[in-house]
Amino acid sequence: MKRLLALLVTALLVALASAGPARAQAVFPFRDPGLPLAARVDDLLKRLTLDEKVSLLHQYQPAIPRLGVAAFKTGTEALHGVAWSTDRSDNGAVVTAKGTVFPQAVGLASTWDTELVKRVGAAVGDEARGFNAENPGVWGLQLWAPVVNLLRDPRWGRNEEGYSEDTHLTGEISTAYGSGLQGDDPRHLKTAPVLKHYLANNNEVHRDTTSSQLRPRVKHEYDEAAFKPAIAADAATGVMTSYNLVNGRPMTAHSDVDDVVRTWTDKDLFTVTDAGAPNGLIGSQNYYPDLPTADAAVLKAGVDSFTSDDTNSTKTIEAIKTALARGLIAESDVDTAVRHILAVRFRLGEFDPGGGPYAKITKDVVDSPANRALARETAGEAVVLLKNEGGTLPLDPRRSRKVAVVGPLSDTLYTDWYSGALPYAVTPVDGIRARLGSGGTVTSGEGVDRIALKEVGSGRYVTAGAGEGGDVLRIADGGAGATQQFDVFDWGQGVLTLRSAANDKYVTISGSSFVNSAVQPSGWFVQQQFKLEDVGGGQVVIRYAGYEKAYDWSGPEQYLTVAQDGHLVLGAVTAAEAARFTKDVVRDGIADAAAKARAADVAVVVVGSMPFINGREDHDRTDMNLADGQEALVRAVRAANPNTVVVLENSYPTTVTWEQANVPAMLWTTHAGAETGNALADVLFGDRNPSGHLTQTWYRSAADLPDILDYDIIKSDRTYQYFDGKPLYPFGYGLSYTSFRYDGLEVDSPVVDARGQVKVSVRVTNTGNRAGDEVVQLYTHQRTSRDEQPDRRLRAFDRVHLDPGRTKTVTLSVKAADLAVWDVTRNKWVVESSVQDIAVGASADDIRQRGSVRVRGETIPARDLAKDTRAVDFDDYAGVSLVDESKERGDAVGAAAGQWIRFTDANLGRGPRTFSAKVSKASAGSASIEVRLGDPVHGKVIGTAPVASTGDVYAYATTTAALSQARGRQDVYLVFTGDLRVASFSLK
Known about the structure:
By secondary structure, this protein is α+β, with helices and mostly antiparallel strands.
């Protein structure tokens, strides 16, 4: 009877398991939420076949019906709201969300308000769940956000996506946003945020082939330090590797994912590649001979998921299977990656009854009234008051009854590449008009020329379509009516967009023809850009200036001609062959704006950027200026009405030096979403006291910056930490409608040891007549060190609200451990003994109170070059490059003739006798390494080691040289006389 009962139970279990996912859930231990996470993961993992496990390594993970495992897709974009995802059923077609759009990331950070940013993250996480509840096949719960790459160069095309040039501020804001995305449940994730883009991805020019040169101090103290806080705080569940190389090794297959990132947490991380990056390893980077070798390297480096070939996982699966067959990886490597993937999927509640606590969130949360209110609040807090001379702001609606709102961004809102679609739009004109109500008058104008273009040869005008979808542009008989008129928007460096007056749509390319059909300039290939080039005699030619040619047009032509049927087409390679036009100005935009300003009590000029044109993914900026036409507009309006306010709406620092000197009031905001107009009106009229602060240095000129590819912030004097010039606006800068006094700074102890912390308190008083928020910032400077230290470095901040006349004591804490520096002589973090200057104020350059504390740490000893020393652990250098020692791990120094590296304060004792080095030389012939003391040119040569060709950069040999007598503590230089690589060396 017992045997029969056992058989019946077994049969029942088999039947349940084969009955489909719903019934299978009750069978397997991995479905039991009462079991530990690791046990559940292990149970599911052991039930998967090898083929099933391999299938889970691609971005599009298939369902496994026999176990009731649903399909899973990585990567919903959610940088400042749910933005877009891809549709598996439509071969990876992009689907754009229509939900709450918050200010761009750099705007979120300008609030310096971690509690607010966490609330924003929570709202975005809710909306991601809402979209997922409606269509899980499109809206996955692994979110590719936030971006924590540091904004070390304001010309970076993706400046809008990051938070700050500072590691501490970036860490605080990313932790807050990630915490909101994840939710507060201790065991479950609302969503699974992934930090982008690890590591040192801060240029778009040749981003897949350039190598970011990171010497150890820069790598540890700066670039890694931006990623660690959110991971260490369990506010993110993984990283996305970046396209670039670091020190010669592609980040797509960089061992730091395991060797560094996973050491920051004891939680399983689910890491991913950037889109298409695995194929780049055998493509543009040419780093591996074939895809199986490349994908095996990616997996062994610690990357779990391949974002490759859109929805087609076949190539990845075949490459992984081939790698297994060749012995390049073992099944245990696959198991490790799958275990990471499943751990996060379990935490998302996927295998819990009912989908876990967050599965109850529905689409109703999307664009909710609460989220609209939060968007308005956030956009208002993100505004930075740059200048306010003579109390120009806030505007008094009783005195400013006539307001002219002009400028190319005055009556429109733009979205960016990582933005969702706006469910509604409140433009600056809308917001100001609503705020004034019936008690005031608002006049508006975009301040752009409206023109008609007459083809010289025929005398006929360029004509567009009047319908919603526009039509192919052609030359046609008739006068310059609405269908012949175009509004010309100047975005700088001669780049224009043409908006048809016939239907308010932008001219874009279609094949080799052009049509007025685009709602706004957009797309990966921004096809709505043109230049009107003056060819003399009052004539112009039209140059197509899209980032790349259209998808269906790859010819060399870039100038417009007129085809036989009258259509405008891309038909000329040079301006000399192009059709010529005269430009009839139907409306002078600047004159119109100036006239409106002259008749108003106050003029508000809204200028700035078009996010798809002025720097974005894949395109860096080459200057930082306001567009010439926009600056001319500001100058004209200021001349017409001294009571002029400039609103600068863009995503990055801009060299507005004339405006700062001549305009009485100026605000900066990012592209801040649907509530932009209301938020600006709130600030302009004083309903909200501006309290945003800049998160990066605004320079006076691009001449203040080195090459965008120079990543050594220490040697090149980058960011507020090392910049020794006078910025236009310093890091942390932001004005208020009230004023604040700082006094009574106290440091709780004059001395702190390396394991302690110091508490700094300061009294802050609102000395004005308005309530306001102040961002109290604490900086430190280490007086003495073995190495060059920053002039100042942000260590703590607090945003405090104060009513008029009220005082609050603000206490900020700094752990001594957070003052540690990277010791290149011993490859570890060290808290040095030194006095730390403490500076508290309203920006990096506006210090109100000072103090100091003595830190009892250690003194870094003199270098011991008798031990094996990595060449990259130098103290200074000239001309060398940092390269990959091997394709798996390690960095080396690549050098050419005349270049050198220095090792400061080496203790040579009674005198080393032998120099030896691990070197390689791919080119034929020989070179040498000179060992010099004190100076790379005139210093004493104590030995010269020959370097013969090894035939390959990864083929190393040992070279030696006898050393003449040298004693005591010396600066040792290795000076190179030819092309070679050196991995390590010693003086014994």
